[in-house]
Amino acid sequence: MSILVVGSVAFDTLKTPFGVREKIMGGAATYFSLSASFFTDVRVVGVVGEDYTAEHEAVLTGRGIDTRGIEHAPGKTFHWGGEYGENVNEAKTNFTDLNVFENFQPKIPDAYQDSKFLFLANIQPELQLDVRHKMPNVALVGGDTMNLWINIKRDALMATLKEVDILLINDTEAKLLTGENSLVLAARKILTYGPRSLVIKHGEYGATLFFGDGSHPFRAPALPIAEVQDPTGAGDTFAGGFMGYIASQPKLTRSVLKNAMFYGGVMGSFTVERFGPERLLTLTREEIEERFKLFVSLTHLD
Amino acid sequence: MSILVVGSVAFDTLKTPFGVREKIMGGAATYFSLSASFFTDVRVVGVVGEDYTAEHEAVLTGRGIDTRGIEHAPGKTFHWGGEYGENVNEAKTNFTDLNVFENFQPKIPDAYQDSKFLFLANIQPELQLDVRHKMPNVALVGGDTMNLWINIKRDALMATLKEVDILLINDTEAKLLTGENSLVLAARKILTYGPRSLVIKHGEYGATLFFGDGSHPFRAPALPIAEVQDPTGAGDTFAGGFMGYIASQPKLTRSVLKNAMFYGGVMGSFTVERFGPERLLTLTREEIEERFKLFVSLTHLD
Description:
UDP-N-acetylmuramoyl-L-alanine:D-glutamate ligase; nine-stranded mixed sheet; 11 helices
């Protein structure tokens, strides 16, 4: 079933211990949609500038992604510059040129109204809520956010969380959002804010799924990777695999959610192997299934 | 089959957000032996002072632990004072009174010579090597170390590692020991230093077992715990469960090692629920098996 993602479509200029890349494709919606496209039909709503060419868009349509919701505005595309040192878990931002993204007002094509799933990637919480209201008939809403909104737009974020079914954030965001130092206590609090399920991502240590019914959580691994060439987009790729797998299943069960956690980790593990979304462009479903089996062998007793 | 542990038998004075305890039982050999005693016969070699009473020793013998190797020396027992703030992963040392531990020369009772397994808890690497040489007939040697020895006794430590079969250390120690920032690269290096297998402990995120044959690692979870009352001894308790389970099995297979990782995590999860080794004193084998099943449900797909 189809999934709509709303978020940033951007260019990234990146430096890691493994090299430098200038103005390559990036943005949460790019990573999410490429990742989810291995599982289900994907539609994107975002905004780009005049420097976003037909060739860039063809990278998405080449994966079967519906890009009619990508608005082309006068000006330049959102451009982020950042670098990672020896600790790949911490990005240092060199510049954030919002450009056309600064005045982004999500417009949802009529043809997208029958989307069954919605993912609100990390954008201003007011815009997330606006999109949520424009898609009243979706069966399930996933969402992300970031420290910036937790710090400066808390009220708006709390209003948005009321209408998100599954929130996907990382350790730092979960602690900041709740003021709790224990991840378990943080999770318990967040599950009173609206979401019925919560995924907390631990970077190289995997992710934990907390259920709103108070039952025991579920932990999925990350692949121990020798060389993380570029961690950019790992979280959005995780979300794409997680939500994409859910959207591909006839029913949302606990078992589906657990498998989705594994697929999220699998997809994220591919992304970090190369710069930007490069690895996702050569990836095959067979490689995904192979790595899924590897993730099982990494965690399951004989 | 019996396991011999050599390490510190100590008193701890602790402060955590959950309370304060003065001069309670601690030390790596205490946690290790209590934990391992749920799986196999345990013998301890260590040294204590005159303030270590028959009642203290009875806590160990009450769990069936053979304490004939605990030497009683004139003076006071090793006493560590430390505290944990909101971040329970970081201990702040208030004092380290080595006392009789400063001149510890491990003496191994003849009756211990038939031990099949040996665990070299965190003591000076020269003493670890000395003990290793005094126990030439053990089938398997496990070991631990700490940042201090990596920094000031690297050569001695490297000599000891040559004769350790399974090393159990944490993320920080693995990185410091190798100069690698990637845990996978650190693991590969350490597996050229001597150990055939390596367990890297990630605190609240679990632990990873790396195999010397280059095959894929295995990841075991930690239990997401709402309230870690006192993290002291969690790593030594893990080691006790890990080595104790191995010692209880007829053969060392890959499957046994994986299960041992789970039992290590299970035992560690109990210790942090209460101050010091308190929780281990009321624990039952049934509770251990119950939590083992919970660990499986935390990580295994349906």
